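COURSE: Structural Biology Practicum
ASSIGNMENT: Worksheet 4, Part C
STUDENT ID: 0417
INSTRUCTIONS: Below are two proteins. For each, the amino acid sequence is given first, followed by its structure token string. Answer the questions at the end about the second protein only.

PROTEIN I
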Amino acid sequence: MAFPRLDGATPAERMESLYQPTAHLYDAFRENRLLHGRRDLMETLPLEPGCRVVDLGGGTGNNLEYLDTDRRERCARITIVDVSASMLQVARERIRRNRWHNVETVHANATAYRPPDGPVDVVVFSYALTMMPDWFAAVDHARSLLRPGGTIAVCDFYVSRKYPPDGGVRHAAWRRHLWPAWFSHNNVFLSADHLPYLRERFGTVRLDERLGRVPYLKARVPFYLFLGSKT
């Protein structure tokens, strides 16, 4: 996992080459030790009875472990969408093990998937946008999937702009340069434009900018939680 070999001509092929050897280990290392804030994100989702949720780039489905039984079962359907067949296999095993009757998986690109029965209530990106070359297109597509008033929920790594908007966190120069270079080795591309673009496309409901621990390192990596409303 520390020194992956990436092969493939397309982003989907490279994604599968990254995760196929390690999908069974993903939750134990990356999910539980590096990817911070997901519990907070999932616990604050506005899940009304009968709602439909789409987790774009949802991978192994581990996000759903952060929903208690009542909140999970009030959803009419939860759809995990991912381009990695290996990650979705882990998700299907999780669904069977937990007997989640209202959870399904779909093997598809986050910029192409469309629910068969129209707009949904909530779209989630959990540490997925930084893995998507066309992340801005993925955000636009997510907006098109949401009903009016629907919620987008995002948690991911990022770096601030050198001159962030009023009230925004400004990261030191070493963070703005080190972390994008360090993560890009694993095809994870931190951007200073995530938050500005999300705030442009959605009304801000919640925004937290934090620092999280990195295994085996003393330095902390910036990450954010964003909940927005389609207005």
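PROTEIN II
(use this one for the questions)
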Amino acid sequence: MQLGAFSVSLGVKDLGKSKAFYEALGFTAFAGTEDHNYLIMKNGDTLIGLFQGMFEGAMLTFNPGWDQSATHVDPFEDVRAIKAQLAAEGVEITQEQGGKEGPASFVVTDPDGFPVLVDQHR
């Protein structure tokens, strides 16, 4: 199973303060906008998503079809195939959205309660 690019997504209280903190750690804004209340910060191949007002806490995020620079990769394993394989293995899908092709996502929860988002953008 190829899950694509990996990042940690953080639900932050103050996007500006969080941005400044991660910049001090060597991250730079890579994608997103403060106007839309989210930024993707990058340091080498490490990605952290900062999301204000969208969810609480932290979650692991995988993006099928992308590498760590958000460059499209082909071939890639479609999010629906990944979801079907996990469901066949008895993993509960807690949230899902999208149609039969194109962008789609789903969430599973690990045994310790950590959400894992698999989010395909194309």
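ANSWER KEY EXCERPT:
Q1: The longest helix spans residues 15-24.
Q2: The mean pLDDT is 96.
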